[in-house]
Specification:
The chain is mainly beta. The protein is about 5% helix and about 55% strand. The chain has a 45-stranded antiparallel β-sheet. Keywords: Signal.
């Protein structure tokens, strides 16, 4: 789908034939709005619906909220009705997925042999590598084998849950039927479980684990070769105990009353009454004061957290990636703010703020700022670029963007009204009705994109002009640049 051609054709039908300007903005709202700055260009058709962005080695086009395709070098990623249909293509790899339920993946080696994987969750799993040792097919729950997936070296089943068998690092586990009868053997492991009544599994010199009337009774010992093994014992809900070198944890009337005491590898003592409401803990580089749900304050490994009237207010402060970070939330997402700054505080702070669903604001601390209103999605999908591209602009009644060079752009009602101020130029558009542009060489005010207007060159008076459309200006610039 060539959205750019569609934009030009529609504009020609209603106004005059034109091509996008090489710099500045061309506003034929709601039919077509384009912005160009050097090697970067973006455009929209029919308000925010059709859109595209182009930069060095990067192209993106889409139809909100249905379709998005991004090309970066030799890699193309796309989606339709996201998150239902997604795909990715590159010279040695391609995938297609329907809601992560139907997945097709092809990897191509240098010799041309394809590694083909196809899944239809949770019924069909297959892989064809051209090698019987790594290829498999499985039709769940009837019969099949799955290799090197789901954390297992091999999974076999027939008439599941009547029979299943898994292998991992020489350990074999057979269910017949699942989950009631379980047999464990191989690589020193030996055990039998009749869930939920009784089970016992052990490996000499490594561990021993058993349960009865799961989950009410259990006992396990790990690291048997160590001088002081790790032990767990529980008769729930009456009592549970865990011990390991330098550590003990006991609970009475589980999980309400208990304590933990640790001396290795750090010192920490914690007491619990009516857990999780009343908890007191002190130790090396850590502290917990919890009087839930009214007040909680904890400091653990440098991370400082405070809750007031949970879940009303929460503040968290920590250092990561060389940055001191301060995060504050009110009712989880109703108000959300994150500030990042250099620990020495010599660099201006960067911050991101959401007041759901009214607005979102970003500041990178280096002069770049953005504001959007309304903003119902950003707080829920902070790292999902597809949602940000397809859904957020549909609600952008107002957007503000300031660059590092302090140039600013305001856009109202999906670019129906725009105002841009740069270091050496000014630009204003009321859709195709009126526009104003000023730079060091000229000032120009036009109605109807050039149907009538006034122009004043530097050092001269204002002059009236007629029928001077952006397409003419673009062609004059092209002719002047031609050899």
């Amino acid at each position: 789908m060539n959205f750019r051609r569609l934009a030009r054709l529609a504009a020609a039908c209603l106004l005059l034939a034109f091509v996008p300007l090489r710099a500045g903005e061309d506003n034929v709202w709601p039919l077509y709005v384009s912005k160009a700055d050097g090697t970067t260009e973006s455009w929209q058709i029919l308000g925010p619906l059709f859109f595209g962005n182009t930069a060095d080695g990067y192209t993106q086009e889409g139809l909100r909220p249905l379709y998005l395709e991004t090309t970066t070098g030799e890699t193309t990623e796309g989606s339709f009705l996201y998150p239902f249909f997604t795909w990715r293509r590159q010279p040695d790899f391609q995938t297609f997925s329907f809601f992560q339920l139907l997945n097709n993946r092809s990897d191509y080696t240098a010799g041309g042999q394809a590694d083909q994987r196809f899944d239809v969750w949770p019924f069909w799993f297959s892989r064809d590598t051209g090698d019987a040792e790594t290829s498999y097919r499985a039709l769940f729950p009837l019969h099949g084998t799955i290799k090197n997936r789901f954390g297992r070296d091999r999974i076999r089943f027939s008439a599941f849950p009547l029979y299943s068998h898994t292998e991992k690092a020489g350990r074999h586990v057979t269910h017949a039927p699942w989950p009631f009868l379980r047999f464990i053997e191989g690589d020193g492991h030996d055990g039998f479980e009749f869930w939920p009544f009784y089970g016992h599994v052990a490996r000499e010199g490594d561990y021993e684990r058993q349960f009865w009337l799961w989950p009410f009774g259990y006992k396990s010992v790990r690291n048997l070769s160590e001088p002081e093994p790790t032990k767990q014992f529980g008769v729930l809900p009456f009592y549970s105990r865990e011990t390991s070198p330098g550590y003990i944890n006991e609970n009475y009337a589980w999980p309400f009353f208990g304590y933990s005491d640790r001396t290795l590898p750090y010192r920490y003592h914690e007491t619990r009454w009516f857990w999780p409401f009343l908890v007191q803990g002190r130790g090396d580089d850590r502290m917990v004061n919890r009087w839930g749900p009214f007040y909680t304050h904890s400091v653990i490994k440098g991370t400082d957290k405070t809750w007031l009237l949970w879940p009303l207010y929460r503040n968290q402060r920590w250092t990561a990636d060389g940055l001191a970070q301060d995060k504050t939330t009110f009712l989880f997402f109703l108000y959300w703010s994150l500030e990042q700054r250099s620990p020495d505080r010599e660099v201006a702070a960067a911050h991101k703020t959401h007041l759901w669903p009214l607005f979102s604001a970003w500041d990178n601390g280096a002069g770049r700022r953005q504001v959007q209103a309304l903003s119902p999605f950003e707080v829920f999908f902070p790292r999902n670029d597809t949602v940000r591209r397809l859904w957020s602009p549909l609600f952008a009644l107002y957007r503000f963007d300031r660059q590092a060079d302090r140039s600013e752009r305001h856009a109202l009602l999906w670019n129906a009204v725009t105002w841009r101020r740069g270091p050496e130029e000014r630009e204003f558009h009321l859709g195709p009705l009126a526009g104003y542009r000023a730079d060091a060489n000229e000032r120009r005010f036009a109605l109807g994109r050039g149907l009538i207007g006034w122009r004043r060159a530097a050092g001269q008076r204002w002059h009236l002009f007629l029928f001077d459309f952006p397409s003419k200006a673009a062609m004059k610039a092209d002719q002047a640049a031609s050899p």
